[in-house]
Amino acid sequence: MLEEQVLEAQRHDRSSFDCGVPPLNDYLHRLAAQHQKKGISTVRVLVESETPQTILGYYSLSAAHVAHEALPTETRKTLPQYPVPCFRLGRLAVDLRFRGRGLGQVLVGLAVQRCLQARQHVAAFAMLVDAKDTAAQNFYLHYGFTPCVDKSMTLYLPLGRTV
């Protein structure tokens, strides 16, 4: 069974993770635990309950904002004319050994769920992501993200309204 866990440097085997993208591997291997300790981002890993030390994939979240002008006109109409609070999906990767199982979709869903939970305590309009290349951009577009006006590789996913 799949489980989402907070990254624990001593518990999870970061060194064997390989998604095929050196900067994403390097982040998990060297920086993720430090960033988590310093409050820069939270890192969550996807594991199988039988082998929780093996990281199937991961994502990171942090606080962010987007400039009002970066959003499409229709979206801007209902928002204040200053930077809009958001969450940033900083990194998302699946180990090459586990590709083709829909884990990218699972990780996006888990990240959205975390943002919605956090939104009960801290307001945020959307989840932002900076796509690293066209393939990543297409991945996020497939899941309903919209490109920002000023930077098409920066995309956002509105998190809906709260009552």
Strand line-up of the largest beta sheet: 1-2-3-4-5-7-6
Judged by helices, strands and strand pairing, the structural class is alpha+beta
What's the shape?
A: globular
CATH homologous superfamily (4th level) name? Gcn5-related N-acetyltransferase (GNAT)
Number of strands: 7
Number of helices: 4
Q: Biggest sheet, in brief?
A: 7 strands, mixed
- Tell me the strand percentage band: 25-35%
- Low-confidence segments, ≥5 residues, pLDDT <50? none
Approximate helicity band: 25-40%
Number of domains: 1
Span between termini: 34 Å
Examine the secondary-structure arrangement and name the CATH architecture.
Answer: 3-Layer(aba) Sandwich
Q: Which sequence of SSEs, written as H and E, runs from N to C?
A: EHEEHEHEHEE
Provide the CATH top-level class. Answer: Alpha Beta
Oligomeric grouping of the chains: single chain
What is the residue-mean pLDDT, rounded to a whole number?
Answer: 95
Report on the structure:
The chain is of the alpha+beta class and 163 residues long. It has a single domain (2-158), classed as Gcn5-related N-acetyltransferase (GNAT) (Aminopeptidase), CATH 3.40.630. It has 4 helices and 7 strands; from the N terminus they run βαββαβαβαββ. The protein has helices spanning 22-38, 73-76, 103-118, 134-142; strands spanning 2-6, 42-48, 57-66, 84-94, 126-130, 146-147, 154-158.
Which helices and strands occur, and which strands form pairs?
Elements: E1 2-6, H1 22-38, E2 42-48, E3 57-66, H2 73-76, E4 84-94, H3 103-118, E5 126-130, H4 134-142, E6 146-147, E7 154-158
Parallel strand pairs: 4-5
Antiparallel strand pairs: 1-2, 2-3, 3-4, 5-7, 6-7
